[in-house]
Amino acid sequence: MRKLVQVTGRMPWPRLKGCARLPREADLDPRVDLATVNAASVLSDNVLQAAAAASAARKGRLTGAKLLVAVARTQQCRALANVGSFTESVAACEEARAIYQTVGDWAGTARVLHTMAEVPLDQGNLESAQSLYEQALAIARRIGDVRGIARELGNLGFVFQEQGQWRRRSNFSENLWPRLER
To answer: Binning pLDDT at 50, 70 and 90, where does residue 87 land?
Structure first.
């Protein structure tokens, strides 16, 4: 936490000010950095979010906490995309996806595919975003993740709308609830 304050020059959230007074050993705990990631996300502070996520991932690697690294890299991917660092964003997402797939966490894989889709979407590459959303949707359906299904169907509807495929977008909207009820 001390290092993050030094890097960014500010404390992420008044409630986290107490973290700066934690014992030195807490500086080694990646969960403190993940709390900072969440606070920075709420505050839309993408620079702090990316820095805290990078710190959490580094500490997670040192302790061998693979899933923690995947969570941190997913958050870092989102923050880096939001500041326009698309190449670094994709690298973070790819690392997270590889970890999730290695440990068999399909919900995590679907979430990171969703996050990855936001990069080409932000760049106007609708076809690439569509492909990633469809991959996430297939996984969500396979594991029965109703929220994931709804999220990806909604995003695909948005992509179709942006592509001018009004009929296809309409079909998605009309069929969204019956598909979720299955």
So the answer is: very high
